[in-house]
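FORM 12-B: Structure-to-Sequence Request
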């Protein structure tokens, strides 16, 4: 067995989830020879360019940074070869790695994926796991190949999904777990004890990218499904309800709970006082507990209703069939 040593690492990532891993890898004594991240994007009302969390961290630590629009550029690939990296670590990067890049590092490219593969391959594994009502998820360190999260598994750690978890709270725990797990995987790689295992053929699901259509609440669904969807989409993209009388003013719904009530038409407001908002759904009702009007703040239902009264018998619109 080889004695563990610091590795030469190229890191590719963009959001906070990836920044946690980059910080942990550097703290573990590995040499970050290059950081790849997405190009700066306009954000906010002024549409000023904003750096990614990974870029900000890399600049603070003095790491070399590149922001290519594609990894198919021959000059960039030549630069990567010249770095003589032991491995590339990829976490929520956002660009496709072509076969030429996958083959450059001595030990290939390792991906930090926020699910227990093969469940929830794809772009939004954290939100899809909560939305589906899963009891657990985790982190899988995977040897990347040309498929969509199909490569051999190198290391996995489980994480329970708690009843009160939102997409945000679970993201933060998985970011920390991902950071710890990639450090453990790199230690084993350095020791020569990291062993790939093929993903099971059964249990494959896909975590498709979140869209605006996903955010719309389907009132015909069971209460449990609506509760899980609202939890999953907090804080991004936020679950959305549309009142029939104001369809152009989407209301963000941030917190709901199941309630004991029934109505013949899902989407019907059953109660709107004192300070409570119950809406019929597929198998009962849900109570909307925290809401937000366009341009407003997240408010408890009582405060929301003072500024935007909603009467019993009013209806929330059904999303169009897809």
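FORM 12-B RESPONSE
SEQUENCE OUT:
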């Amino acid at each position: 067995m080889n004695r563990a040593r610091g590795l030469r690492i190229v890191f590719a990532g963009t959001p906070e989830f990836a920044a946690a891993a980059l910080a942990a890898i550097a703290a573990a004594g590995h040499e970050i020879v290059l950081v790849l991240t997405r190009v700066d994007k306009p954000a906010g009302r002024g549409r000023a360019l904003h750096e990614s969390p990974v870029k900000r961290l890399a600049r603070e630590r003095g790491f070399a940074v590149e922001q290519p629009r594609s990894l198919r550029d021959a000059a960039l690939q030549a630069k990567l070869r010249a770095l003589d990296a032991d491995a590339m670590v990829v976490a929520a990067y956002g660009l496709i790695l072509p076969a030429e890049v996958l083959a450059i590092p001595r030990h290939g490219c390792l991906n930090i994926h926020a699910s227990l593969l093969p469940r929830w391959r794809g772009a939004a594994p954290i939100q899809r796991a909560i939305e589906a009502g899963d009891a657990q998820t985790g982190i899988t360190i995977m040897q990347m190949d040309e498929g969509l999260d199909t490569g051999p598994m190198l290391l996995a750690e489980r994480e329970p999904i708690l009843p009160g978890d939102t997409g945000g709270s679970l993201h933060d725990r998985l970011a920390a777990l991902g950071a710890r797990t990639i450090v453990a995987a790199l230690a084993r790689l350095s020791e020569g004890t990291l062993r790939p295992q093929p993903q099971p053929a059964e249990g494959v699901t896909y975590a498709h990218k979140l869209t605006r259509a996903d955010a719309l609440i389907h009132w015909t669904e069971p209460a449990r499904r609506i509760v899980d969807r609202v939890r999953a989409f907090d804080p991004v993209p936020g679950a959305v309800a549309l009142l029939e009388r104001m369809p152009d003013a989407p209301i963000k719904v941030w917190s709901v709970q199941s309630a004991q009530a029934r109505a013949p038409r899902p989407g019907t407001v059953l109660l709107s006082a004192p300070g409570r908002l119950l809406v019929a759904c597929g198998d009962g009702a849900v109570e909307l507990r925290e809401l937000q009007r366009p341009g407003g703040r997240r408010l408890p239902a009582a405060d929301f209703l003072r500024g935007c009264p909603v009467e019993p018998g009013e209806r929330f619109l059904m999303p169009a069939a897809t």
